[in-house]
Design brief:
The structure holds 2 protein chains of 2 kinds.
Chain A lengths: L11 H4 L3 H14 L4 H10 L3 H9 L4 E2 L6 H9 L5 E6 L3 H14 L6 E2 L4 H6 L2 H15 L3 E6 L1 H5 L4 H10 L21 H16 L12 E4 L6 H14 L3 E3 L24 H6 L5 E4 L6 H10 L4 E3 L4 H16 L5 H21 L3 E5 L2 H13 L3 E7 L4 H12 L8 E4 L3 H10 L4 E4 L3 H8 L3 E3 L17 H22 L16
Parallel strand pairs in A: 2-3, 2-4, 5-6, 5-7, 7-8, 9-10, 9-12, 10-11, 12-13
Helix pairs in contact in A: 4-19, 5-11, 8-10, 11-14, 15-17, 15-21, 16-21, 17-18, 19-20
Chain B lengths: L5 H7 L11 H12 L4 H7 L3 E3 L26 H10 L5 E6 L3 H5 L22 E2 L4 H6 L2 H14 L5 E6 L1 H5 L4 H12 L2 E5 L9 H15 L1 H9 L10 E7 L5 H11 L3 E7 L4 H6 L5 E4 L2 H15 L3 E3 L5 H12 L4 H13 L1 H15 L3 E4 L5 H4 L1 H6 L3 E5 L6 H7 L8 E3 L4 H11 L3 E4 L1 H9 L4 E3 L11 H16 L10 H9 L1
Parallel strand pairs in B: 2-3, 2-4, 4-5, 6-7, 6-8, 8-9, 10-11, 10-13, 11-12, 13-14
Antiparallel strand pairs in B: 1-12
Helix pairs in contact in B: 2-21, 4-10, 7-9, 10-14, 12-23, 15-16, 17-23
The chains are: A alpha/beta, B alpha/beta.
């Protein structure tokens, strides 16, 4: 019997390794109609070749293992950054179940969002009735201060008009006239989740700042995080701003919502940027975004409609953080405090301590455009060499920017930017041109398994490791976190590769 | 992994005085109170879905399988989730295309832990995501051409695939694509099975219609191959002990810890539907002597079809907890000869010691604890006996997407006074749990952290909280271990700062 020790009950991780189950697996093959094991092995080898790589890169219609999601996911991440805001996704209901599950698996936090639950009749007649009823119900049940509406592809394909529907819903009394119901059209067949973030944030700011422009500025700086999934980054930004003494508004602050204290009482809407602060953001001195490609339209809108200067800084690594602090200091006229200078010194000290293990290491990485630029900034300053850079949701402006960054350092010379490619492409790259390290989200573990490339999880989603999202990758402290993850992954790998007694363990060193 | 022994647990977290149990009248009043917040129209809809089970009734007194109320925060998914995510996805040697925009396939990628044996990317494709990644031009000009090209490409890159299924996302049905025509043409081109599935997310009211559509696609696009092969004399006669496991998705290995028992009683399991299953197994299934149905909700359709068309009878069974396992093994064996019946008794006896050890260890730690369930289409009733085997009591249950026949079957599992909630909204569930005060909530990922923030122990009952298997005798041991580690974790006693508690006590 497989469970033969009550004090050591075996779950799937061990249960199936036992003889009973190994025999079962072998026996089942009789019925499977599978392929000859030799053919499987041959085919597996073939997928590692240059020939396969060329075939793989020749495909035009097929996407395999993508590294991007769709617009409404980003839209609802933006929405929950505002005080007591309920994301409302207009369209089929399954999408919302998926979004909520996805965020919940990453953050290990509740994530509330509603759907207008459109079905066949709405496909024929349009979804206005669903929206009218849905707004009334969600307003009564969940008592939000704002409902932020975005769309699924179903509503987009049939051409539902959110502005008109929301006006009609208000006229029908679903929610009070003055109740804010910002909206964004977020078709999932355009762009990716970062586009959805941008569209929703712009929609919310457009709604909340209407008629709020004052004669004078409020002296504040707006910060826009973008599609940010590191709660530690939001906290780090706030901490740095407080240390410099900057009066700021974070647009929007989902750090409480996505990392709320367990007090024994469930609060559906923890934290969030106050709606009045968001409304007053139109009167700020300037806006700094920490991501460019998830805030493109929002920044354009702020520049044009608010007449407010905007800029993008990515406080990743030493120089990225330097740039952020210099920017803050320049905008506010306040000096950079000693405390941050000391932090910088400690981070630089850590980098120089570890540099020997990082210098010249060849790295493959993938992720959203801004995440990738931040990581490349960091890799170049520690002397690592980016080699394969895969960005599924790429665009031309981004690729030009990244190319310039790579060209600015001799360590960037060997890098290729693979825009629009997916993780099955990356698999071919890793087999044909191996590297020392892979950086990506949890899906990278399949590449780790197949290619044995040491793997550091940075990105979204991270489902199979706990709590990484609570850390910062921004600031000097975030720099130490990045360094810690990367250098210690390489050192772990070195141990794994030198662990066989009397064979490889000559290099199984105590001191490294 | 083993949590501290119960002797020390008492010192860590003294058991609270049992809360006074709510009567049926109280629970009905609670339902009424909870409904008050809804606008009238929604209230009228929702009141039909909430009730208290009364002994002797033939069902649970709730309506089901009806459209969700917009804006209510239903937990339900869509037809695509039911087809790609549940029924088709686990068929390991086929490539399942998420046809449409990138999101649906991305969110459902590796989400269900349908375990399989195979070389991923070579002869098995379960934890991969294949999509046509629709762009605006595909919506405008249609996606049929792209789909055809995509199938050509995937057959070149993954030559050992045994076939392809096309899992339609919402836009496909709205833009008028003819995926059936593409499927037929592509099947000829690559010489393999290509199955078009019309499981667009807007169809029906939940995952449930997706199961049905997926079942129908098997009937229409897979079984004709059985008919053809049968005619050609290529289907082996098999043995009189041939069975198929239907409706086990092998989450955490459930189908394997079930199969082992069926094999031990002398049956020959020809096919698994669909966890760790293959196309070949599916094609051969109409030749079995008996279909054994675990998840009735998602696969009763194809079972009925096989009964009507091929004369294969089917039997529902339940492998959660030793009481039901023994009962099911006997019921299954009763469909065969005395050899099998004798072996079933032997197997039940063989596992007796293991089961007793589990109960002896865990029952004292769980005895009298109450649980509230809310799961999909089967487990809201099926797992109840496993809790009972551990001395736990069910005080509320409901389905995300059950039908009336599920609620009828539920009456065999629940006691008088159990609160029943169909397609419960987040608001209702939270309100019910606050009043019912169960010791454990067992539901899904979207619910998990809501209740854990309320300091309530919680186990995911879709994914087994990344543990499992829970089926069979081997699975029951894990189930018991997991319920104990959830309920008796010392972490719950850390919630609430002591000074706050002191302040509250002073007031």
């Amino acid at each position: 019997m497989a469970q033969n020790n009550i004090d050591n009950i075996k779950d799937h991780a061990e249960l199936f390794h036992q003889d009973e189950y190994q025999e079962l697996f072998a026996g089942k093959k009789e019925f499977e109609g599978g392929h000859d094991p030799d053919l499987i092995a041959q085919t597996a080898e073939w997928t590692k070749t240059w020939e396969y790589r060329e075939k793989n890169f020749a495909r035009e219609a097929l996407t395999v293992n993508p590294a991007k999601a769709c617009q409404p996911l980003g839209a609802i991440l933006a929405a929950v950054g505002f005080e007591a805001t309920l994301p409302f996704v207009h369209g089929s209901q399954g999408c919302v179940a998926y979004f909520r599950s996805h965020f919940t698996r990453h953050f290990k936090e509740p994530f509330s969002a509603v759907s207008s639950s459109m079905t066949e009749d709405a496909a024929v007649f349009g979804g206005q009735n669903n929206l009218i009823e849905g707004l009334a119900n969600s307003y009564s049940l969940y008592q939000p201060k704002m409902i932020a509406v975005c769309t699924t592809c179903m509503a987009e394909v049939i051409g539902d008009d959110l502005q008109a529907f929301i006006n009609n819903a208000k006229a029908a009394g679903s929610v009070p006239q003055e109740f804010p119901v910002p909206y964004a059209h977020t078709p999932s067949f355009v762009g990716s989740h970062i586009t959805g973030y941008d569209n929703m944030l712009k929609g919310i700011l457009t709604n909340l700042t209407k008629d709020q422009k004052a004669e004078t500025t409020n002296g504040k700086i707006n910060f826009i995080p973008g599609f940010e999934t590191y709660i530690g980054n939001l906290r780090e930004i706030k901490r740095i701003a407080s240390l410099v003494g900057v009066d700021y508004t974070l647009l929007a602050d989902n750090s409480e919502y996505l990392d709320s204290p367990n007090t024994g009482e469930y609060n559906m809407y923890p934290g969030g940027t106050k709606l009045e602060d968001a409304a007053d953001s139109i009167n700020a001195e300037a806006t700094i975004a920490f991501q460019a490609y998830s805030t493109t339209k929002t920044r354009e809108y702020i520049e044009k409609d608010w007449n407010q200067p905007t800029s993008v800084v990515r406080p990743v690594g030493i120089r990225g953080t330097d740039e952020f602090l210099i920017k803050l200091s320049a905008l506010t006229g306040k000096p950079i405090p000693k405390e941050l200078e000391d932090e910088r010194g400690r981070a630089v000290d850590a980098l120089t301590d570890s540099q020997a293990w990082l210098h010249g290491k060849r790295v493959a990485l993938y992720g959203d455009p801004d995440l990738v630029i931040g990581l490349v900034q960091f890799l170049l300053e520690i002397g690592a060499e980016p080699v394969h850079i895969v960005v599924n949701n790429s665009n031309d402006v981004f690729e030009t920017e990244l190319r310039a960054l790579l060209d600015s350092s001799p360590f960037g010379a060997g890098a290729t930017i693979w825009g629009g490619k997916d993780l099955w492409h990356l698999r071919s790259l890793l087999f044909t041109e191996p590297v020392d390290l892979l950086i990506g989200n949890s899906y990278g573990k399949y590449l780790w398994r197949d290619t044995k490339t040491p793997f550091v999880r940075i990105g979204y989603p991270i489902f199979d490791r706990h709590h990484l999202h609570r850390y910062a990758t921004y600031g000097y402290q975030g720099t130490i976190n990045l360094l810690n993850w990367i250098v210690n992954t390489l050192l772990d790998e070195l141990d794994r590769n030198t662990i066989i007694p009397a064979k490889t363990d000559i290099s199984y060193d105590l001191i490294r | 992994m083993t949590p501290p022994e119960s002797a020390t647990l008492d010192a860590i977290a003294p058991p609270e005085a049992p809360t006074e149990e709510l009567t049926t009248v109280d629970k009905k009043a609670l339902i009424k109170e909870v409904l008050e917040v809804y606008p009238d129209k929604a209230k009228k809809k929702r009141e039909k879905h909430l009730n208290v089970y009364e002994e002797g009734k033939s069902d649970c007194g709730v309506k089901s399988n009806i459209k969700s109320v917009p804006g209510s925060m239903t937990t339900r998914g869509c037809a695509y989730a039911g087809s790609k995510g549940v029924v088709w996805g686990p068929i390991k040697d086929m490539i399942h295309i998420s046809h449409g925009p990138v999101g649906c396939g991305y969110y459902s990628w590796s989400g269900r832990r349908n375990y399989y044996i195979g070389t991923t990317g070579i002869d098995s494709f379960g934890t991969m995501q294949f999509t046509s990644d629709f762009q605006e031009r595909d919506i405008v000009f249609g996606g049929d051409k792209k789909l055809a090209q995509l199938i050509t490409e995937l057959d070149e890159l993954f030559p050992l695939n045994r076939g392809v299924s096309i899992q339609s996302e919402c836009p496909i049905g709205l833009i008028g694509d003819d995926i059936e025509a593409v499927a037929k043409k592509s099947a000829k081109e690559i010489g393999k099975t290509v199955v078009p599935v019309r499981c667009e997310g807007f169809r029906g009211v939940s995952q449930s219609l997706g199961h049905h559509i997926a079942n129908d696609a098997v009937r229409d696009w897979v079984f004709p191959q059985y008919d053809k092969e049968k005619k050609a004399g290529n289907i082996p006669d098999g043995t009189e002990y041939d069975v198929a496991i239907i409706g086990d998705y092998n989450i955490g290995g459930d189908a394997w810890s079930s199969r082992i028992l069926l094999e031990e009683i002398g049956l020959r399991v020809v096919a698994q539907w669909s966890g760790d299953g293959t196309l070949h197994e599916m094609i051969n299934t109409p030749s079995v002597k008996l279909n054994l149905v675990h998840c009735y909700r998602s696969m009763n359709y194809i079972s009925r079809h096989m009964e009507e068309t091929y004369g294969v009878p089917w039997l529902e069974y339940n492998f959660f907890g030793p009481t039901q396992i023994a009962e099911s093994l006997r019921a299954i064996a009763a469909k065969f000869d005395e050899t099998i019946q004798a072996k079933a008794e032997e197997v039940i006896a063989k596992y007796e010691a293991q089961t007793q050890a589990v109960i002896a260890k865990y029952r004292p730690r769980l005895e009298g604890k109450t649980v509230a369930l809310m799961v999909g289409g089967l487990r809201p009733r099926h797992v109840v006996p496993a809790f009972h085997d551990l001395g736990m009591q069910l005080i509320g249950t409901g389905y995300e997407f059950g039908h009336n026949d599920d609620y009828k079957r539920t009456t065999h599992y629940v006691e008088n006074g159990t609160l029943i909630y169909d397609d419960v909204s987040a608001y209702e569930f939270e309100a019910f749990i606050k009043e019912l005060k169960p010791d454990l909530v067992a539901s899904g990922i979207k619910e998990k952290y809501v209740f854990q923030k309320m300091a309530l122990p919680f186990r995911q009952m879709h994914s087994w909280d990344y543990s499992g298997p829970y089926h069979g005798y081997d699975g029951f041991a894990i189930f018991a271990r997991d319920m104990d580690l959830a309920l008796n974790s010392p972490t719950w006693s850390l919630i609430g700062a002591p000074w706050k508690k002191a302040e509250e006590a002073a007031v």
